[in-house]
Amino acid sequence: MKPRVFNLACCTVLAGAATILLGGCRPVAHPPVALDAATRLRHPVALEVVDQGRRLLVCNRRSGSISLVDLKLGAVVAEADVADQLSDLAHAPQRDLVVTLDDQKSELITLRQVGLEFQPLGRVAVPAHPVSVVLLPDAKTAFVASLWARQLSVVDLTHPAAPRVVTKTDLPFPPRKQYLLPGGSELIVADAFGGGLVVIDPSSGRLLATQELNAHNLRGLAVAPAQRELLVSHQTLMSENATTEFDVHWGTVMVNVLEAVPLTELTSSKPRKQRAARLTYLGTADQAAGDPDDVLVTSDGHRVVALAGTSEVAIYRPGNGDEFERVTVGRRPTALALNATGDTVIVANMYSDSLSLVDLKTARVVQEISLGPQPELTRVDWGERWFHDASLSSDGWFSCHSCHTDGHSNGRLNDNFGDGGTGAPKRVLALSEVAHTAPWAWNGKMADLSEQVRKSIKTTMRGPDPTDDQVAAIAAYLGTLRAPPSLAASRGTIDRSLVAFGKSVFQRLNCVECHRPPYYTTPETYTVDIAAGQEQQDFNPPSLLGVSQRRHLFHDNRASDLKSVLVGHNHGLEGPLIDSDLKALLAFLQSL
Q1: What is the CATH number of domain 379-478?
Q2: Which of 131, 203, 367, 579 is the most exposed place for a label (fewest CB within 10 A)?
């Protein structure tokens, strides 16, 4: 498919009273405005500085387009429609090669950048839901992390018009962020939801080491100048502290940090918890810093962190320890890049559809660049924004997304008032298909989704009273969240005959009494042998859709996997299953 391209090489633009042509003409002092800029939502998610620092590539998730920004002019000079939706982008200057990901069709796409044009070259299918791409220094190999397939693909780009997948490596978690260590010696892949990190051998794609941080939402990776430690921005939900006004206000429920992990420990083949970690705490009471995202480290030691939940960036100066300056930018900054001279950070603001240029010396925004006009937002659009906005919590410590990562779950325990009391922390539930799985809360006593949203904001997030419009918008957004595909479906490994037999076992054992199709739940509560202390004996069964993508099960995460549910805990069973029934039942559950 040839991308639709809007460019200003031959397009008239206005700058004050002057009219110029960009093709060969000298720009005037004021930034131009493209006359043909499409009105739509773009949602930038990735940046690449190109053309010796003169221009910037912007990967737009929502519009599926790539914008080309002239940094001197401070304007978009071209925009190419590439796919329905894009998730990441990488650039190889020595080959004028652009690599991007279509996460709707699960494809890697190659393009050639020539001036203001993007020439389509090739495509190749990759495992389900690709979310990040990294290139080796020679730009002949790409690594693609696929979320729901839990795989890392090595893609040969020797011939960009015919890219091909060489190997696939199974990962122990759904991945998102990747980071290639200096020199290309090892590739780091981070957990999309929990605290997992793996080290990959770039030459073979082989998994070398696995580590686990006491963390979730690992969103930024960078190496410090000394190159002895990996900086990881993340959150940690503290299950031992209830969501009282006191604990939320003082930041003891949700911790937002920049963690320094020694590379020697990270690349060790012996897995271990990083408990004696060196942490830089982001935010304080009365001025929290929810949802840290991308991280950037300059050659002279500046550290910059995007604070997505509070729409700011934090700048740490060399020698200033843990003190940082906060700079307000556009709504939900999630990607950072450094200009050619290394003195300005370029910030992609997802929901503002804009770029903020921040001067590192003065810690001030020196320029704002619009990626194009936005249409009037729908209720769902507003709901998505509020879902990711930490201002709904006390002081801005966390957003809905902090616990319900990307609408799913961070998998951790939280001691909140959702069930009427505290003292028995429970697993954060995924929100996929939540509009179809009434009632809500583990005790099933919330019959209205909007009221559940309101209660969560007031008693878990402890923020200001939400407006009716905010509550309705968030509930509308939740109604769009679909269950993830099963791990087996994402990897193409479903044994349909075994799944069919497993479905008959599921029905014969009367599992449908509590987990009734099509959403594999029911509105009732049931007394089960996993009580949460004295107060709670009855539970509303969570939906089983997408259950293979969960790392722990039951309300307190006591079961490590589905087999543990059936064998270790004999959940819902009168006695042990014979091997053939167990194998089939597991295959069926893992297909949902």
Answers
A1: 1.10.760.10
A2: 579
